[in-house]
Amino acid sequence: MELINKKENIFGDDIAFVEQYDFSTANMSEENRIKAITTVASICYQNPKAVGSESLYNRLLAESKGLPSSSFEFVPVFLTIEDVKKINSIVNKEKVIAYSFEFNVLKFGEMIEDGKYLLTNLRALIADVGEYAKEFYNTPEECEIIKQYFKVFLYKVDLPIRSQMVRHRVSWQELSRRYVSGERVPFEFYISKKMENVESFYYWTDDQTSVYSTDEVINICLNHYKQALEQGVKPQEARRIIPQTAYTQIWGAFMPKQLDNYFKLRLDEHSQWEIRQTALAMQNLIKGEE
Fold first, then answer.
1. Nearest in space to 106 (alpha carbons), one of 80, 129, 124, 85
2. CA 122, chain centre distance (Å)
3. Contact present, 33 and 142 (Cβ < 8 Å)
4. Which of 5, 41, 80, 149 is most buried as measured by Cβ atoms within 10 A of its Cβ?
5. Residue 172 DSSP SS3
6. Using 50, 70 and 90 to split pLDDT, how confident is the model at 98?
């Protein structure tokens, strides 16, 4: 999958960024599907060598109680009305889904081009038709249409901003600090202008006082984390001591209405400054793409 452009230094600290990627051809072939899904997963597990790995793809294919990982949502699927009718016939013939009150491709998709086509994702398609998903690859012409509507971004932001972002019901995949320890990939931290000069006072005795800056408090927590790892605590437990100011990386894939809603809420002047910077960066990247 192709990096289109990058907006760096969005928080003014030379760390935070937003990148835009082109995933429009991810459903042209099985090889492209594997590359797209493992590209997303490689960020989550911080393993660039995993890109294109069939073994990782197959593991992710049945990760969620028999259903694919949410990384499969990053493969956009373009369906015609005839394709939807074909899905209906497969479902009714094979009974591959336990609940048929609504197709997943419809539930997690969006009609585009004045309702002529359905834009959905591979995870939804597999949930509906299982192994028959291999019958629904997209053509180069269809991928050109997908490119106009399906937008994928990779963000590097702090944890509180990530928490605000994931309130939006879009497709997300995040760097896993459950598996990726701070020893393998060191933590980085965002200190806002309002927090950088804050000092806290601790009174040990009547005549002894300690003063800690924000940096020093972070270092205390980081040292505690390292001590936990050295004492055999797993990263998934030790991470609890890491301050919220830590950076993470997170993928986001947007359908048109989801993107419009993100811009509507996060470009508003009342939005927190940092998340507004993500929306401004996304908007600038999209404009640069045109």
1. 124
2. 16
3. no
4. 41
5. strand
6. very low
The dihedrals phi and psi of 193, each to the nearest 5 degrees, come to -55, -35
Q: What is the DSSP letter of 198?
A: -
One-letter identity of residue 34:
I
Percent of the chain with pLDDT over 70: 94
Calculate helix-pair angle for 273-289, 256-266, nearest 10 degrees.
140
249 φψ region: left (φ > 0), alpha (ψ -120 to 50), beta (else): beta
Is the Cβ–Cβ distance between 140 and 28 less than 8 Å?
A: yes
* 242: CB partners within 8 A, 6+ apart: 177, 182, 187, 221, 222, 225
- Which amino acid belongs to residue 40? V
Place of tokens 């060191």: 186
What pLDDT, in 10s, does the model give residues 209-263?
788 899 999 999 999 999 999 999 999 999 999 999 999 999 999 999 999 999 9
171 in Cβ contact with 253 (< 8 Å)? yes
Look at the pTM and tell me if it is higher than 0.90: yes
In 107-131, which positions are buried (b, 16+ CB within 10 angstroms) versus exposed (e)?
A: ebbeebeeeebbbbbbbbbbbbbee
**Residue 36 CA to its chain's centroid (Å):** 13
Which is nearest to 40 in space by CA: 78, 8, 69?
69
Residue type present at position 182: G
Q: Which two tokens stand for residue 219?
A: 């270092």
Count CB-CB contacts under 10 A for residue 227. Answer: 12
Taking residue 86's Cβ as centre, other Cβ atoms within 10 Å add up to 16
Place of tokens 């972002």: 165
Written in H, E and C, the secondary structure of 204-260 is EECCEEEEEEHHHHHHHHHHHHHHHHHCCCCHHHHHHHCCCCEEEEEEEEECHHHHH
Residue 201 CA to chain centroid, in angstroms? Answer: 39
Dump pLDDT digits (tens) for 45-56.
888 888 889 988
Half-sphere exposure of 127 (CA within 13 A, CB side): 25
State the Cα–Cα distance between residues 105 and 120, nearest whole angstrom: 6
